Amino acid sequence: MNQVRQYGQYASGSEAERVTRVVLTELGCHLTGDERADLARSLPTEAAALLTGGAPAERPLAAAAFVRDVATRLGGCAEATARWDVSSVLCVVARAADDELVNRVIGALPPGYALLFGRAELARAA
Fold first, then answer.
1. Is the pLDDT of residue 42 over 80?
2. Among 16, 38, 49, 120, which is disulfide-ready with 4 (CB 3.0 to 4.6 Å)?
3. What element of type H or E holds 106?
4. What is the pLDDT of residue 123?
């Protein structure tokens, strides 16, 4: 949580913890299979539990809808604030995992998530 606090420039550890809990819980609902399990193994125990603790969603949300959902769960903050929060957590997550795993995670999600992980969005071949 301290890494999220520093990366996201949060004023308190409790704010960074609240944001981390919401983002990882939501991400875990939209990420399934080996990517979810492998990502959880690369995270500290508490973060891994948040990622794997929720029931999988019927289908993953598009990145913009994911950010809106997080905004709602954070108490109705502005989408720009929620995008900062999501990116702050996911960029720290990306640092904890190796590049190959992060690429697999991004590939398992709908387009648009790469930017939230601090990566360039690559066009998929037709």
1. yes
2. 16
3. helix 99-108
4. 56
